[in-house]
Amino acid sequence: ASKTDWRVRAISASNLHLRVNHIYVNSDDIKESGYTYIFPKNVLKKFICIADLRTQIAGYLYGVTPPDNPQVKEIRCVVMPPQRGTHQLVVLPEQLPEHEYLKDLEPLGWIHTQPNESPQLSPHDVTRHAKILERHKSWDGEKCIVITCSFTPGSCSLTAYKLTPSGYEWGRTNKDNGNNPHGYLPTHYEKVQMLLSDRFLGFYMVPDVGSWNYNHLGTKHSENMSYGLKLENPKEYYHEVHRPTHFLTFQQAAADMEEGADREDHFA
């Protein structure tokens, strides 16, 4: 990215809060059977406000099943792991979140932003979801979903998906990272029911050291890295804590200007 590109994108991202009053949940072609997921509005609005319009960001979902309604899953927590991304995918550490605050919650999948709305769950998402399910037995394929948060003009559009058995089998064996890999089919996923609520509040957890956003520190991020967690709201995508190199550059530029000012002016 050029030096000016991130500045333009940072200004655009500062207007994301205007979209939180225009959130649409895609409810077309949803099967009546299966779980219904309730997403607290306070957490969703924060997720939108800390995002970037181009680079995807992601968080893991944790929640509870109300004792009087076993077909409902209430999302209570979003964990922002250390991450970097592109406009097509997010790279997350292989380690799943661990913390005592999550012990009484069940893993319910993950959510990510995307710069454009798509009529389908991308092959990248099918593959990542299947590989997490295969690697981590704490994730149940019937309960764990993928929520896409697409930036549509002046608004956000949410769609929730779960993998079908054929999608799981295809995704866990897929090694093609292209946009149209062999064998990918629309039957690999199903849309699931999701509702937004302000009846209860959710909370965030972020890495206890450093930042959740490694997009400005790419070389320091690794899929093998380990991380702890703390209870805290995540800082927005372009917050200064995520990009110390930019501020070192500003400092150097300021120092160069000061040096120039000390020269004698023979024309004064």
Radius of gyration: 21 Å
| Portion of residues within helices | 10-25%
Instruction: Report the span from N to C terminus.
Output: 42 Å
Largest sheet: 11 strands, mixed
Helix/strand-derived category reads alpha/beta
Topology pattern, helix = H, strand = E? HEEHEEEEEHEEHEEEEH
Query: What would you call the shape?
Result: globular
- Record field, number of beta strands: 13
Low-confidence stretches: none
Q: Overall mean pLDDT score?
A: 89
Strand content: 25-35%
How many helix segments?
5
In short:
This protein is α/β, with parallel strands linked by helices and 268 residues long. The protein contains 5 helices and 13 strands.
Describe the protein's architecture and organization:
- This protein is α/β, with parallel strands linked by helices.
- It has helices at 3-13, 41-49, 123-135, 165-173, 244-261, and strands at 23-25, 36-40, 58-64, 72-79, 84-85, 90-91, 106-114, 145-152, 155-163, 189-191, 193-197, 203-207, 229-231.
- The strands form two sheets. Strands 1, 2, 3, 4, 7, 8, 9, 10, 11, 12 and 13 form an eleven-stranded mixed sheet that branches. A two-stranded antiparallel sheet has the order 5-6.
- A hairpin with a 2-residue loop joins strand 8 (145-152) and strand 9 (155-163).
- Helix 3 crosses helix 4.
- The longest helix is centred in the last third of the chain and has 18 residues, at 244-261.
- 35% of the residues are buried.
- The mean pLDDT is 89.
